[in-house]
Amino acid sequence: MFSVFSKKKRKNGLAAKGNKSPVLILFIAFFGLELLVGDLPWKYILKGDEVKRAKLELQHGDPQTSFLALTSDSFQEFARAVFSINTEEEPNYAALQALLTELVGDRRMSDPYDWEISYREAIEGVR
User: Fold this and answer.
1) Which CATH class is domain 5-123?
2) pLDDT in tens, the chain (127 residues)
3) How crowded is residue 71: how many other Cβ atoms within 10 Å of its Cβ?
4) E strands within the chain?
5) With contact defined as beta carbons under 8 Å apart, do 37 and 66 qualify?
6) Which domain of life is it from (predicted)?
7) Residue ranges of the domains in the chain?
8) Whether 1 contacts 92, CB under 8 Å
């Protein structure tokens, strides 16, 4: 597997602390998980510290025994890549895009939406 980090380091600590790209990419992973599975493990948890624990468990736990086990191997690989990103390094967007391209397979932006065809047909092979 290739690295999801480019060789470039951040030029200064202030820029790294203000970088929102890894947070945005993490949001995309959580959003994708919710779309694929229909839920997130912390959806019904009310206490902030328990929500944080559930998110950390998802990010650092074994994908085969966590909530990610409900997804395909390619989504698990994308999620692992996203969860490993930190604000000190510039994400390798080409590598992340390649993982997403692998995830969607031969589907195209022009393909019908899931409400235009059977929901099961739309996600077959992704889940």
Assistant:
1) mainly alpha
2) 444 444 444 444 434 444 556 677 777 788 778 877 778 888 888 898 998 888 888 777 777 777 788 888 888 888 888 888 877 778 888 998 898 888 888 877 787 766 666 666 666 666 5
3) 21
4) 5-9, 89-91
5) no
6) Eukaryota
7) 5-123
8) no
